[in-house]
User: Fold this.
Amino acid sequence: MTQLDDFKAQCMALCEMENRVLNKTSPVWIFGAGQFGRDLCTVLHNRGYEVAGFIETKPKQKELAGYPVLNWLELDESQRMMQLAIGIFNREMPMDNLQCLAHDAGFKEVLMPWHLYEQFGDDLGWRYWLGSSTLILNALQRIEKVYQNLSDDLSKQCMLDILSFRLGVNNPYASFRHDDNQYFNELTLPALQDKAINYIDGGAYNGDTYLELANLSTISSAFLFEPDRENYNKLKTNVERFKNKTFCLPLALTDSYSILSFNGDAGEGGAISDVGSQHIATVSLDEMLQQQTIDFIKLDVEGAEISAIKGASRLIRDHRPILAISLYHRPEDVWEIPELLLSLCDNYRFYIRQHYFNSFDSVFYAVPL
Assistant:
């Protein structure tokens, strides 16, 4: 059986299983008192569930939102028999380790973020790659087509591992990440040697990625797009010494000019939002850089990758740059972003690499032959 056949078999088995859900017959402990845990508590309270409280390995407070905050050792036997919801969702803490902590503490009924999102997704709202399992199960033909067009076995396995992890049938993958450096690695660097490159960074944050590139390659020009005000100010300061060839632009990348709301409260994870506290201008790369040759495009634009790629379609076809595109902001990005680039990038090689825990910082690479 091939790895693709094995994945399809996992999906078929999942279709026949009932979703794991929290029930109202037993109180719920929430492991984690960060933003995801607090939001989950609000949703459960509003839905009529009994929240027992929060659990933290090292609590910073005794009470939160009127609920107790305990460590594992403070729980008695009856409390360990209650339901536990993993209320931690980030790239720093591998989910399989969190699950082990809960089981080691004596909890039998442990629900992971993907179980919770299946049940409460409408209330929890956008949470990066979290989504209903039916999104993946209904896209198997599209997934297979992308899989067949990937250029090495490592990428093929990575794609299936990401998807099976998000379906809840591959928990150990939470702790996995490739050894490759993000963006600038053995896939991309060989094509950058012996030339001065023109670089675009969509979602430049504070300039960290650009500064890394500057140490690895000769840069002729760079266009750094960052819409968040605080990040933009840091970006300008950090790249000041390269000002003769570096252009910092307080703009977001999409497929057209517009003014949108933007939520920048999350620091490096700011995103376009209907209730954003900032207003930002968006542009397309095709409009912005009509006469500019480009050698490398990196996009980490918090869920607007598809729109930004469409807004750079002419530039991509005309100049055939290397592309490094974030693949984890929306659950369907895993197949939709490769599908789009397969249609735009003729005579390219395509790769996927996993650069952080819990399938965060997965990147799709398109490298011209």
Observations:
- Residues 145-368 form a domain with the Rossmann fold fold (CATH 3.40.50.150).
- The first helix runs from residue 3 to 15.
- The two ends are 32 Å apart (CA to CA).
